[in-house]
Amino acid sequence: MISLVLRLIINAIGLWLAAQLVSGIYVTEPGGGSPTDLRTISTLLVLAVIFTAVNALVKPIVKMLSLPLVILTLGLFTLVVNALMLWLTAWLSGFTDYGLTIAGFWSAFWGAIIISLVNFVLGLAVPDRS
Question: Mind telling me which PANTHER family this protein's record contains (predicted)?
Answer without folding.
Answer: SLR0284 PROTEIN
